Amino acid sequence: MISKTLLALAFLATFVAGSALGDEAIEPTYTVKISMDGGLGPFLVDGEGMTLYTFANDVPESGVSACIDDCAERWPPFFAPEIEVPPELNVTDFGGIPREDGTFQTTYKGWPLYRYFEDKAPGDVLGQGLGGVWSVVAP
């Protein structure tokens, strides 16, 4: 009887301790995830919620970024050494390319990914449509 009581108490203590940690303890940390905008619909963001963009002057699957020098200052290349994504995304859609400056850049379905320097808060989409060549990334 004592062993059943101890076993029940141990189970209860484990359950209470796990519950006290809340959902944050079991939520994975993603390097890329999906955000939503009423006008744009779903789009990709980095792990901190900053919007990711593609550049129409890039050629997908070419292994090269067309955004260099001054362009790369306004549109910093996005790079994550390891990609963790929610179930709605497929990790095999992500890859990487070397840049001419020796750094690396993450790609999505062959397109190099960028952030926009004017986006200051998670979910900002100030780069959407700029110059007719910058677009948020639809999943």
UniProtKB/TrEMBL annotation:
A Gene Ontology biological process noted in the UniProt record is: alkane catabolic process
Q: Write down the Pfam families for this protein, in alphabetical order.
A: Lipoprotein_15
Domain of life of the organism encoding this protein: Archaea
InterPro entries this protein is in?
Lipoprotein_repeat (IPR005297)
PANTHER family with a match to the protein in the record: BLL4220 PROTEIN (PTHR39335)
Protein name per UniProt = Lipoprotein
Source species: Methanothrix harundinacea (strain 6Ac)
